[in-house]
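Record 1 of the preview.
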Amino acid sequence: MLAYVVAVFGLGAVVWHWVRGKSWDDSFSFALTMTVSAVVGQWIAAVIRRRAGRGDG
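->
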């Protein structure tokens, strides 16, 4: 999990800085937002799958 978070954050910051030409402050803010969204999205998906159970769908 930690490796996933570090990879998403690092790649997001570097791409936003180099490709978009933004400052490192903007890049870190973007990367933090993207990382939190990705982690929370995975967490919500796991909760939905757990609640769905075998008989649903």
